[in-house]
Each structure stands twice: as structure tokens, then as C-alpha cells.
Amino acid sequence: MTEATTELVQEEASKIPVGISSCLLGEKVRFDGQHQRDAFVEKTLGQFFEFRAFCPEVAIGLGIPRRPIRLVAIDAAVRCVSTVDDTLDYTQELRDTANEQIAWQQSLCGYILKKSSPSCGMERVKVYDGDRPRRDGVGIYAATLMANFPNLPVEEEGRLGDPVLRENFIQRVYVLSRWRALEREGLTVRGLVTFHARHKLILMSHCLNAYRALGPLVAGANRANLEDTAQRYIGELMAALKQRATRGRHANVLQHIQGYLKQYLDADDKAEMSEAIAQYLRAQVPLIVPITLLNHYFRKHPNDYIRDSWYMRPYPATMSLQNDI
Ligand code: SF4
Predict the structure, then answer these.
(1) Whose CA is nearest to atom 8 of ligand 1?
(2) What atom of ligand 1 comes closest to residue 53's alpha carbon?
(3) Which of 118, 137, 161 is the last residue of a domain?
(4) Protein residue with least CA distance to atom 4, ligand 1
(5) 208 and 125 share one domain
(6) How many domains does the chain have?
(7) Is residue 292 in some structural domain?
(8) Which of 11, 44, 82, 257 is the most buried (most CB within 10 A)?
(9) Mutational test site, ligand 1, from 29, 32, 97, max ligand atoms within 8 Å of CB
């Protein structure tokens, strides 16, 4: 078994710590004493993620059941208040409880939040301004969490129903998980260079500008500037990966990878490979089709750079995410 295969087996065997709104796991913590269990999150993602559940409203002592709360625009600020009494303001308590969770949240590689919640909603939460709610709010707990951990992949359970958003979130969770492993091992210049080399093709599929910028950044790393360079690197990498990988950019990456085989493939093989990429670009086949064909050729003609690249196996194959895009 090669080192890369051993790593893959280890990665697939260990669950990744991911925070989650408690109600999504079936805990009866909602204001009405009910839950909002999400079967895909619990059953499917639960096979790969070790969930750390937290309910901010219960944490601040609102009780179960409780009067609901909502976001309200008051004096040009957004406050989180009781639906029956605007003077019962929980904004600061929700911020404080988010800040009090930093110790355990530091080890997380992702967070799944309950959509539309005035505490947990990541975006488009209703903000009541006069009679008409507008949909541009962020839950108070969620906003504080995201401010405290700007590199943390965060997503809502509703958006995970979209195959592209789902793949993007899971991709980022696995990248951050590998970064955390690198930090645990002890960051070195060599470790940073290797990490970047192995994620270059993933980055290329998301954002060419970041791909062009991060190479020189990593090349300039030395012992004296390592800490600063690493923090800048992971910040820019995680921000770039938020951009969705498009079919066009994937096709470019696939063609780039095909280039490593050019001396080994005959004309028919090259045509077959190019056609698989073209079919993917035309949305006639999923990404797994050209990737499988490439893997087939690289088994016959191994290449260290491609073998070690996480692009070819960004997350466990059993997640079947490349079958959807
Ligand atoms: S505060 Fe968050 S975790 Fe608690 S019930 Fe509301 S959405 Fe769920």
C-alpha cells in the first residue's frame, strides 16, 4: 500500500468534528418542544462527521418550550427579541454564549446551521422592520461564530440539498481537516509547500486568481515568516474554495491532468479521454466519469504528483458526490 493510499484509508476511517444546530439531529430543543431532524445530515453525513451539537437558545436559559424570538430592526441595529415583547432583548446573551464556545469550536472543521433561525440562521433570516420582514438577516449566534472562525466552512441544512453547494461544503470540510492535521503535526515550510502542492488542482477548479496568487505566497515561505504566511495562506485558500467549482474550471483541470499522460496515450486513448472531458463539460456525464478514466490510465502510468493530489480523491468515494456534478 502506498503512503497516499494509507493516508486515504486513515482519512476515511476517522470522523471529522463538525458543529451542528442540535435540533437538526432530532433533539427536541426548538421553541415548540419539537425538533427539525434532517435525515440526510444525520444518517448520511453522520457516517463521516462526528457531530458536536449545540443549541444557543437553550444555552442562554430560554427553556423548552419557550416564547419564540425574532430579529427586529431597532434604531438602525438588528436585535434579537421576544415576539411578544420587544424589550426582552437576547442579542448580547446570544453573542456571549457564542464567544463562550470558542474552546471546543476551535477543533471543528465545519458547522451545519438551521436555516431561518434568528439564532442559528446563516443568511436570509427574516428581520422585522415595521410590518414587513426583509430577508437579509443573520442569526446572532451564527454571525458571532462566523466572525470568530472566518475560515470555518459553514452551511445550512436546506442548502445542503443542492448538489453543488453540498459538494462545495464537504470539499472545504475535508481541506480544513487536513490543514488541522498539518497544524497538529507541527507546521514547517516543507509541510506548507507539500500541502499546497496536493491542493493546487482543487484550488484551480475553484478560483484561478487564487491559484495564481497562492503559489508565489507559498514559494516565499521561510522559517522567519512561516506563521504569518501560513495564516494568510489558509485564509485565502478557504475563501477561494467558497467559490463554486464550475464545469468549465473542472474541464480545464482535467485537461491539465491529461497532459501528464500525453507521452503514454495513443491517439485513440487521447480521443477517448478528450471526449469524456467534453461530455462532462456538456453536462452529459458526471465528474466521476473522466476522473475514473484518468485514474485508470494513471494506474498503468503512475505519476507521483497526480497520485498525491487530493483533486483525484477529495473526500471518501462512498459519498458519491462526484456522481452528482
Ligand atoms: S436555537 Fe438553533 S439549535 Fe436551538 S432550536 Fe433554534 S435553530 Fe435549533
Answers:
(1) 23
(2) 3
(3) 161
(4) 55
(5) no
(6) 2
(7) yes
(8) 257
(9) 29
Instruction: List, for residues 112-153, the tens digit of each pLDDT value.
Output: 999 999 999 999 999 999 878 999 999 999 999 999 999 999
Quote the DSSP letter at residue 98. Answer: H
Give me the average pLDDT of each 10-residue run along the chain (325 residues).
60 87 98 96 96 98 97 94 95 98 98 98 95 93 98 97 95 98 97 98 97 98 98 98 96 98 95 97 96 96 96 92 85
Which phi and psi (to 5°) does residue 54 adopt? -155, 135
Which range of residues forms the domain containing residue 148?
16-161
> Smallest Cα–Cα separation from 129: which of 68, 79, 69?
79
Among 161, 180, 199, residue at a domain's last position: 161
Instruction: Point out the ligand 1 atom lying closest to the alpha carbon of residue 29.
Output: 5
Of residues 151, 161, 154, 152, the one with CA closest to residue 139: 154
Taking the CA atoms of 271, 272, 274 and 278 in sequence, report the sign of the dihedral they define.
positive
137 found inside a domain: yes
9 domain-assigned: no
Angstrom distance (rounded) from CA 202 to CA 210: 11
Bridge partners of 134, per DSSP, are 127
- Alpha-carbon distance 190 to 187, whole Å? 8
CA distance 305 to 242: 25
Ligand 1 site residues, Cβ closer than 6 angstroms:
21-23, 29-30, 55-57, 114, 117, 119-120
Q: What is the CB neighbour count within 10 angstroms for residue 175?
A: 25
Instruction: Tell me if the pTM is above 0.90.
Output: yes
Give the whole-angstrom CA distance, residue 60 versus residue 89. Answer: 12
Q: In 3-state terms, what secondary structure has residue 229? A: helix
- The values of phi and psi at residue 302, to 5°, are -60, 145
Do both 255 and 305 map to the same domain?
Answer: yes
Question: Residue 108: in which H helix or E strand, if any?
Answer: none
Q: Which of 24, 27, 30 to mutate to test the pocket of ligand 1 (most atoms within 8 A of CB)?
A: 30
Instruction: For ligand 1, pick from 20, 23, 25 the residue to mutate: most ligand atoms within 8 Å of CB.
Output: 23
Closest to 176 (Cα-Cα) out of 240, 246, 259: 240
